[in-house]
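Hi U.,

Before I forget, here's the chain from the pilot set. I'm dumping it here mostly so it's searchable later in email.
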Amino acid sequence: MDVLIHLFVALHIIGIAALLGGFLTQLKAMGQGTARFVPGMLHGALTMLVTGAVLVGLNQADDHDVNTIKIGIKLALLVVILGLVYVKRDDEKVDKGLFALVGLLTTANIFIAVLWT
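Structure:
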């Protein structure tokens, strides 16, 4: 079971890398007011959602303690990110504030995952 959990942790990290990487590649465009949500950001967020749900299930099945408050907060942030990216995915350019919010929420999600023990 541990190998399966580690596999899904790796996939979860790949998802967050796609989301954050998509954001970082658009920073210069954000400064010019032409940033947009790239498809990799949506795919990364969806990967995070699916692998995160699987990780919670696998950890509960393996009798590990799951911090439901932490998971709930991370899920809430991810749902907001997904909603914003999904709704604005076809727009030619996204408002700077909205784009920065997605980056901020993504970074907050990372810090919650790493620092909240």
